[in-house]
Design a protein that fits this description.
Layout (H helix, E strand, L loop, with lengths): L2 H20 L10 H17 L3 H9 L2 H4 L6 H18 L14 H11 L4 H49 L5 H56 L3 H11 L8
């Protein structure tokens, strides 16, 4: 579980609620069913209209990654790649073949398969680069859907508020009902802003950040596969791979 997401969302809601209570308000009154119906589905449908079907599907399939820690350990992965490099240096590329079935990462397995098959450095780069680009596009499309929903939500909230005000102004003969209608109308604005900056926006940006970590791991594997084919020394390989992740934490 990624606690930063839960703490961030719960903390944001709690901060707003506490501030409202201190001013004598009641946070429960901000939760307006009509506003939720107007804002949330409309923003999501509007975002869907701007995305491909595959992107919408990916957005919901990959939403779970926002709330979970990625099972990526750069330090362990580098050690594994260096071990393969040492093995090839000592016993040749064919010695890797018996370890292929033990590899649980499909991208790494594909990379080591190409090494065992005697593929040239250029062939490995061309093949694996295509996979990396496709993966990058997949996660970009998925995160972009939620970012679009975030961008749309505040405006949809304003539309909901205007609709509520139109209805409220039709009750000029009953000031109490009109006041209640105006108050209800503004909950749509609050709902739209909250949906954007507390939910959809953070989801999209978190997904994009984690996708970058996934891509970084694949780039490390690609570099290592080419280095093994080139015959780079294992010590040199470890140094270069470590440099690739110096701007990132070793554990994600």
């Amino acid at each position: 579980m990624d606690l930063t997401v839960l703490i961030g969302i719960i903390g944001a809601i709690a901060s707003i609620s506490i501030g409202d209570i201190l001013e004598g308000g009641n946070p429960v009154h901000v939760v307006h069913i009509t506003s939720l119906i107007i804002v949330i589905p409309t923003a999501m449908f509007a975002a869907a209209a701007a995305c491909e079907t595959s992107a919408i599907k990916a957005a919901f399939i990959e939403l779970k990654m926002v709330f979970k820690q990625l099972p990526i350990d750069f330090e362990s992965r580098i050690d594994e790649l260096v071990e393969y490099s040492i093995l090839v240096k000592k016993n040749g590329v064919l010695s890797l073949e018996k370890y292929l079935e033990e590899i649980d990462d499909e991208f790494l397995k594909e990379a080591m398969n190409m090494v065992v098959d005697g593929s040239k450095e250029e062939q490995i780069e061309e093949s694996l680069d295509a996979i990396i680009e496709e993966t990058e596009h997949y996660y970009h499309s998925a995160s972009h859907y939620w970012i679009l929903a975030a961008e749309t939500s505040p405006t949809i909230g304003l539309i909901g508020a205007v609709l509520g005000l139109i209805l409220a102004l039709q009750r000029l003969d009953n000031p109490a009902e009109m006041a209640a209608g105006i108050a209800g109308a503004f909950t749509a604005t609050v709902t739209g802003i909250a949906a954007s900056y507390v939910f959809f926006g953070p989801w999209g940006n978190k997904m994009r950040a984690k996708a970058r970590t996934i891509i970084k791991e694949k780039e490390i594997i690609l570099y290592a596969a080419k280095a093994i084919v080139r015959g780079d020394a294992p010590g040199e390989l470890k140094l270069k791979l470590t440099k690739l992740i110096t701007v990132m934490p070793l554990r994600s």
